[in-house]
Amino acid sequence: MAFFDWDDRYSVGVAQIDAQHRRLIEMINCLYEGMQRRGGADALAAALDEMTTLAVVIEELIAYCMYHFSTEESLMSRYAYPDSPSHRDAHAELTDRVHTFQRDFDAGKAVSSADLAQALQAWLTDHILHTDMQLGRFLTEKGVCSTARAERAA
Q: What residue numbers bound the domain in which 62 lies?
């Protein structure tokens, strides 16, 4: 069992957004798994492995968050989503958090992939179940391709 499993309750009903959320969950699991490899017979090698994993995953996570947020924000603009400002603020909050984590990591401060993975899991779960669910309902009402229709078409 993974640290953070996809569950159908996370589906916002929009195929593109759901697929991107699944990818974000995979990336969070990668971060967590990097932490799990730590320890054992060669603690130094494990610590270096975690740092390498963290560096790569942080870069990928930032890039993918920007891509995902841009997808949602583009849909919000295209369909004149009334709660766009607060939704964008939530995106900015996570972006700031991850950039702070990256700056600390780059500065050599003690950081933990487990801490970041747990913070991301909590943030993403809350964001999906509340903020993105509202967006998903709005977009579905506007006729944006639903997850169910996309699965039937596949």
A: 12-153
